Amino acid sequence: MSDVELARIPAGVIDLAAARGRPRRRVALDAFELGVYPVTEEQLAEVIGESAVHPRRPAVGVSWLRAIRFCNALSEWEGLDAAYTFDGEDVTWHVDSDGYRLPTEAEWEYACRAGSTGAHYGPLREIAWTAADGVSAPQEVGARHPNLFGLFDTLGNVWEWCWDLFDPAQHRAVRVLRGGSFADDAGSARAATRRGDAPREGYPDVGFRVARGGFDAVDAAQGWSTREDRDRALE
């Protein structure tokens, strides 16, 4: 199959904003791996068993749940332990698994910034496809400049699913999207911009990229925990 190319992201610290005016929080991250590009139509087709109309474009119309299932299928393909198990539509992340998975929100923003502190890691016209380019569909991955971690298209082109819940107090099941897309203006293509959508929904400007990295913990890793999700739901 077309290999999923991963970049090694070093350990570090990220300050994250949160929903509904909650204070910023500082998250310490262990090293992990993240896809150099969003998952492409070709890669999705090879793993899931579909045809790819535009092989090098990001796969879009993929719901959060389908992205999770892709991660498990890719892990099985490569002989790795699956990161997720299912009980209906309830998904458990086994954080000690080294199989493919979605990044946490903290991982995504830290990797996107690659040491930068501004809204973008470079001039937007050089790094991201947005509405300012006048395109009507996602563009082939890797056509614009990468960040200092060697990641392409983290801003613009397609929104990307993360593992985390967006705001469990207001929207119990809604999951985080990051990065903005070809259909959005510059205000959405910012490293700190958050959006949420239902895990069953897929959209023509939403894709995802995969991560890898297991951690010696249970129900908590890389800025996420089930306990914090429960606490936030009670706010």
UniProtKB/TrEMBL annotation:
Domain of life: Bacteria
SUPFAM superfamilies found in the cross-reference section: C-type lectin-like
Domain Sulfatase-modifying factor enzyme-like per the UniProt entry, residue ranges: 17-212
Pfam annotation, one family: FGE-sulfatase
Protein name: Formylglycine-generating enzyme family protein
Species the sequence originates in: Microbacterium aurantiacum
